[in-house]
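Write out this protein's structure.
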Amino acid sequence: MLFNLLQTAADTIAAAGGLNAGEVQVKTLNLIDMAMAGGWLMIVLLILSVVAIYIFGNKWWLIHKAGNIDKNFMKDIHDMIHEGKIKSAMDLCQRYDSPVARLVEKGLERIGRPLQDIQTAVENMGNVEVARLEKGLPMLATIAGGAPMIGFLGTVTGMIQAFFRMSTAGNNIDITLLSGGIYEAMVTTVGGLFVGIIAYFGYNYLTSQISNLVFKMESTTIEFIDMLHEPAGE
C-alpha cells in the first residue's frame, strides 16, 4: 500500500511538471557551454592560459637544454687546460648550448689575466645567464595571481547583473532569474582558479629547476677557478 501511495505521488508530480510517469528530464552542461556562459572575461582567461602554457613550455625546454651536458665535461676541460690546449677547450664549450659551458668559455677567454679578473668575468656571465633563464617568470607569476582575481571580478559583475534582472522583474520574480545568473557568474571563478593553479604550479616548478641549475653553475665556477690555481702551485 505504501508503494502504491508513493507511486501515485510520483505520477502526480510528473504530470504537474508536464512529464509522463517514469520520465526524468536531465539537462547536462558541457565545458564549452560553461565557457560560453562566462562571458567575455572567459576570452581574457583563455588568452592568459595560452600565454602561461607557452611560457612554461619555452622555459622548460630551455632549462632542459641547459642541463644537458656531458658528465665528463669538466674533467675534459681540466685535462685540456693542463695540456695547454686552450683553443680545444673553447671548441668543446661551444659544442654545448648550456650556461655551464658558456661560463667556462668566458673564463677560458680570460686566461692569462689575473685570477680575480677571470673570476669577475665568469660571475658576470653567470648573472647574465640567470637573468636569461628567469626571463618570463614574472609574467607567469602575474598570471598565477591575476587570473583568480579576474575570475572573481566576473563573478561579482555577474551577480550584479542577476540581482538587477530580479529588481526589474517586478512581480514576475522567478527563481531561475537568480539561479541562472549565479551559475553563469561562478563560471568565471572556476576559469580563473583553473588558469591560476596551472600558472602557480608551473612557476614553482620552473623556479626550483632554475635554482638547481644556478647551484650547478656556482659549483662549476668554483671548480674552474680551482683548476686555474693548480698550475701555479705546481
